[in-house]
Write a structure and sequence with these properties.
Number of domains: 2
Largest sheet: 4 strands, antiparallel
Mean pLDDT: 90
Number of strands: 19
Low-confidence stretches: 570-574
Shape: globular
Distance between the termini: 62 Å
Strand content: 15-25%
């Protein structure tokens, strides 16, 4: 059976920085041309961090060394030519040539990311769909799947390589097939398997202007002793596995969360395909690596309060259905106390802030932050949803003492408050009509629809703040423009609710307050609308102040017939 070496075979699709047609490259050529490429294109979004962590970042770090200091990282980012030096490229080529056999996907002795000869007691195999998160396989049946578990799935070697590293990072939990050589197998299976390591994180990946910059931005400052070795230098792997902690950064990045064997065959045209696989239990990461660079952190209070017990530090996971900007309080905080507890941003974003401070990156550097997460269901044994988002982020906003930082946090909180205000209006109108409010965990509440409408406005603001480069006048005008448009969209959402309210809400309804005998609250369309307008002015105070100033001037011009509430408002240049 012919081999398929990831060093040379064109298994990675990339986008040229000049906007040309996509290219397909192997590891060696991709790294040699990293400064000419915008980034990697993948079939499934969560494959991107898997390819970076399992392959590209470890190769670069082990061949050229991770940056030892923040200043060294900055110098490598800011150098002329925007790519690897000739010495670094020579080191990468030497490294790949010296370890070429270890990158062969179908090597008989030590196939990349796999265990040679891995088999069950009865030599059973599974269809390649077991490797693919989006394919129907066993209990993992995506909603509206176009194929069933019985349909054969032939993967090209390139596709198999992507799904192989994806499984090591994101695979589902629960029962795994027992294999020969695993002394922890019981009744032909292993139980208690956790998800892949990235499935336990809210993954954060900073992106630069080129693939070279992205690689450097994702290489944390690492002392030589902490760098370690990748999995391909630990092999050949055996079917046996154990719970253990990651020994180093490269051990973490190339973690073998599963024992896998791809079974290749040649189709009728002689092309190499993968239709059958063996997947079993792999090493269990315990505890979480303290310096995991691709996540933010949450500190939670211990169950039993004690001066000697420190808050627990846990990876902060992304929330299904929430845009990345709705979690800015964690992304922008070296350490910050919030309503849900204390937060700490990722190591990488903290270092990017430091790179601006030492002058290695400009204030208007076009940083893009991509977030990834996996939503599992039924004891984490199936994939229910994949979380992926991308937002522009200002480097200045990563500093807690900057105007940009305060502005972005304020805008994110204002959007949430506007959604709550619309939900409160809906609840008051429903009470006035004699019905109960929509439960927070059931149905589609109107505040969520407003957040959907505000989403492109917030993203436009994020890009504007990034491009402002700290210009306080631009930031001030941007804040006012945001409040004006947000006010307009919130009023439109409220008007839709008020217009749909039944006639009975005009008279209203009195409701006894819980726990306060004899005391009643009256809900009506008029009071609901007045309360909403008051909340609107409290949430968007700058626009409210300007609007009142303009209204006072117009009142002086037009006299007592001026209708403040009917005024369309103030237009800003945005």
């Amino acid at each position: 059976m012919p081999g398929y070496n990831l060093v040379d075979e064109p298994w990675l699709t990339v986008r040229p920085a000049d906007g040309g047609a996509p290219l397909e490259l192997g590891i060696a050529e991709l790294l040699a041309r990293a400064h000419e490429l915008e980034g990697i294109a993948v079939e499934f979004s969560s494959q991107l961090p898997a390819v970076l962590r399992q392959v590209l970042l470890p190769v670069v770090a082990h061949a050229t060394g991770a940056p030892r200091t923040l200043r060294e990282k900055g110098e490598r980012l800011a150098r002329d030519g925007g790519g690897f030096t000739e010495d670094e490229l020579r080191a990468i080529r030497t490294y790949l040539d010296g370890n070429r056999a270890r990158f062969d996907l179908f090597d008989e002795r030590d196939p990349f990311g796999q265990v040679a000869g891995l088999r069950t007691a009865k030599d059973e195999t599974k269809g390649a769909a077991a490797l693919v998160a989006t394919a129907a396989s066993g209990n993992n049946v995506p909603l509206f799947a176009s194929r069933t578990d019985a349909d054969p799935l032939d993967l090209t070697p390139a596709q198999a390589a992507h799904w192989l590293v994806h499984a090591h990072c994101w695979d589902t939990a629960a029962i795994k097939t027992g294999v020969v050589g695993d002394d922890q197998v019981k009744a032909g299976k292993t139980t208690g398997n956790p998800t892949g390591p990235l499935g336990q994180l809210g993954v954060i990946v900073p992106m630069g202007r080129t693939l070279y910059e992205t690689l450097l931005l994702n290489l944390p400052v690492t002392p030589t002793s902490a760098e370690g070795i990748p999995q391909w230098l630990r092999g050949p792997h055996s079917p046996a596995w154990k719970p253990r902690g990651a020994e180093s950064l490269l051990d973490l990045w190339t973690w073998q969360a599963r024992r896998i064997r791809l079974i290749p065959h040649e189709d009728e045209t002689g092309r190499l395909k993968v239709a059958r696989v063996v997947i079993s239990a792999g090493d269990r990461l315990t505890p979480m690596f303290e310096r995991e660079p691709h996540t933010a952190w949450t500190f939670t209070a211990p169950a039993k309060k004690s001066a000697s017990v420190r808050p627990e530090r846990r990876p902060r996971r992304h929330t299904q259905g929430k845009a990345a900007w709705r979690g800015l309080e964690a992304l922008l905080s070296a350490t910050r106390q919030g309503p849900e507890g204390a937060f700490e941003t990722s190591v990488l974003l903290d270092e990017i802030s430091g790179l601006w401070e030492i002058g290695s990156l400009d204030a208007d550097y076009p940083l893009q932050v991509e977030t990834f997460g996996m939503v599992y269901g039924t004891q984490s044994a199936v994939v229910e949803d994949v979380i992926h988002d991308s937002i522009p982020l200002s480097l200045l906003a990563l500093r807690q003492d900057s105007e940009a930082h305060d502005l972005l946090l304020d805008v994110a909180e204002q959007a949430e408050q506007l959604a709550r205000a619309v939900n409160n209006l809906s609840a008051d109108l429903r009470r006035a009509a004699g019905t109960d409010p929509i439960p927070w965990d059931k149905g589609q509440r109107p505040g969520e629809l407003l957040l959907h409408v505000l989403d492109p406005l917030v993203r436009r603001l994020l890009a504007g703040v990034r491009g402002a480069g700290g210009d306080e006048d631009v930031l001030h005008r941007g804040r006012l423009a945001w409040e004006q448009v947000a006010h307009r969209r919130a009023r439109e959402a409220a008007d839709a609710l008020l217009l749909a309210a039944p006639a009975s809400t005009f008279g209203g309804r009195s409701v006894e307050q819980p726990g306060k005998a004899g005391k009643k609250l009256t809900y009506s369309l008029g009071t609901a609308g007045a309360n909403f307008r008051r909340q609107l002015d409290e949430i968007l105070p700058r626009y409210a102040d300007v609007r009142k100033q303009v209204a006072a001037a117009r009142l002086a011009e037009t006299g007592p017939d001026y209708d403040f509430e009917a005024d369309p408002g103030v237009d800003f240049d945005h």
